[in-house]
Amino acid sequence: MISVSEARAALLDLVSAVDVETVPLAQAAGRVLARPVTAGRDQPPFDASAMDGYAVNAAEVELHAMFKVIGEAAAGHGFQGRVGAGQAVRIFTGAPVPEGASFVVIQEDVDRKGDLITITDDPGDNANIRDRGRDFRVGQTVDAPRILRPADIALLAAMNIAEVPVRRRPVVALMSTGDELVMPGETPGPDQIIVSNTFGLKAMLEEHGAEVRMLPIARDTDASLRTAFGLAHDADLIVTIGGASVGDHDLVAGVAESLGMERAFYKVAMRPGKPLMAGRFGTGAMVGLPGNPVSAMICGRVFVVPMLSAMLGLPTAAENLMSAPLAAPLPANGPRQHYMRAMWKDAGLQAFDSQDSSLLSVLAQAEALIVRPPHDPARDVGERVNYLAI
């Protein structure tokens, strides 16, 4: 068996960044920006009023000063003339500040009678003007790589960027294996169960940027597995679930190797998830996850998600674990790194009593995974432990 860190490094060596494609800005949310992009304009593109009021020359602003209103400026409809001495332009938020004006007196500080206004309240020192380029200037860049959040999309739109260079979504083929499995909605036989791993992993991997293909369930026969692998031949990553152990009905490794898979490792010193297999497969990679539902999901989070980050050109430094105090004691850990399902209680983490790798109900309630290194001693309430958010 190899350690979790050794397995992670070996898996990252199996993949490389996928190609770059250009997509319309409206389709870029959640995608990974592949190259820096540059603003094509200033924002705001002109000195703009920050308030509704009257644009005047700042040198003339004082309590009880009077001005003649000579026009109006609204958003999208600027005043084309010049503001001279003793003159004002009615202005609204977002409108261009007219030439000659350098201060906006807010409307609450003004009394207006016809075309004359008088400053009736202290106007203060704030000019209420957003200077041209205050937000960003022509040539300013948004750096890559980065996952484009809604705020990033708004920024790119304001920069007048209509198309965005992003990494294409890595194609992941998910293949559940086993005669015991049927799809949700079907009626299982007396010895069968409903397949769940594929659906959970699909949701997880799509959340992290993958295009996921769910393959038909592969039965425990050489022919069925070969057919399933044939359907996945053009995927960047093939993820099999179950069938990777060494039992008489665990055929995945043998079939994969007969089809050209070059195994990188088998078995990792972790709980849950020891029977993990990986290797090169054609132009892509393959990961064989354990069949137990919790094992498959945790291995997906610990190993497959970082592989996706590498394919998307994102940083793949060692997992940045957080720490928190324990809300309940923990016994000493064994020789494998243990990912314990836990929940928050009294500002600390408490591991669930049962850590059986078949209990999806416990995983669904879990808010974090406490990460116990091999041979970690017993821990008492209040001691800090590392954890992975889920």
Automatic annotation (TrEMBL):
Enzyme Commission designation: 2.10.1.1
Domain annotation MoaB/Mog: ranges: 173-310
Record SMART domains: MoCF_biosynth
UniProt-listed InterPro entries: MoaB/Mog-like_dom_sf (IPR036425), MoaB/Mog_dom (IPR001453), MoeA-like (IPR038987), MoeA_C_domain_IV (IPR005111), MoeA_C_domain_IV_sf (IPR036688), MoeA_linker/N (IPR005110), MoeA_linker/N_sf (IPR036135)
GO CC, one annotated term: cytosol
Keyword Transmembrane annotated: no
Protein name, entry field: Molybdopterin molybdenumtransferase
